Fold Peptidase M48.
Amino acid sequence: MNIFSIIILGTLLGTFFIKLVADILNMKAAGAVLPVEFQDVYDQEAYEKSQNYLRHSTVFSLVAAAFELLILLVFWFAGGFNFLDSMVRGLDFSSLVTGILYIGILLFLQGLVSLPFSIYQTFVLEEKYGFNKTTPLTFVSDKLKGVLLGLLLGTPVLAGLLWFFENSGSLAWVWAWVAVAFFGFVLQYVAPTVIMPLFNKFTPLEDGELKSAIMGYAKSVDFPLSGIFVIDGSKRSSKANAFFTGFGKQKRIALFDTLIENHTVTELVAVLAHEIGHYKKKHIVIAMFLSIINMGIVFFLLSIFLNNRDLFDAFYMENLSVYASLLFFSLLYSPVEFVLSVVLQSLSRRHEFQADHYAVETYSEGSTLVEALKKLSRTNLSNLTPHPFYVFLNYSHPPVLQRIERIRRELSTATF
């Protein structure tokens, strides 16, 4: 083993151990007593169900992560990366086609390893707790569509990256950065109208009290709406959500049908006010900017480690290649990625507080956001008392109780 082997192996095992500690602490933090704030939406039976769901889903995630890590380590130290490379090279294609096949086969194998866990999660775990609405046909259809999209979208991106790094010299990382960033912008623009409808049906919200209330609020905050849509989320799960997607003329606000079914008009407008708050506070732009900067750093560092003999030796590789460099560097970069994810999660939680504040500040019935959050927690069997360390590592949203307490403090001291 060389220094790269030690770094990558240490990162894989260290990250797993840190997450294991966080999961154990999180399960221990689950309180037996229902918090007073939620006693109007939970009964003790429902609360115990949420606790059981937390334990079951946590143990399942740990088993899945441990198994996938074990498979990776066995494949690595058994020389699997080099064996596959030799096999694909033996087909005598160009380096571009060889690289696409190499990475494509690895992704296919990864998908096969994770498939049984995906089946169990959907048809056993989610079914047991009343969430699953997915039929076997829908499940298979989703998987096939995902593979097809991966081929149609991922193949040209991968081919472009390989071509740039093989043919563009010292500035290859710049061209790759620009090209992938541009592709990302295009994807953001077309996804709401082209890609998302492949998986869910988007139905324009019908005229009525809800639409009038939403349009009235949007006009009051000078937010032009080109589309308010209802998603058939109940096709796959009873869980509820809402989101904002796209930009420019393609921006959409989407409401799950399960959300509309369980919430009042004022609660729904408060939820949408929160989503509009993200747009108004430039959170979407900030996230895209940070993603693009991170991408540039990744490509620059990749150019430094490209075809590094020591890195290839760490994976028992006989031949150097750009395509394997992409894969091995992604593993080498994982400790940096782990730290960045913690930082970005923290920023995301801050943005959620800001969006809550915007909703309360700009909507006359903003206080109903509290009721909406409580109902969402009940519907989704959310963990009401997560451990702070688990939140620090994993939560993109603040714990719901913290959000409610912050909203109540703002309402009590409001001057708006």
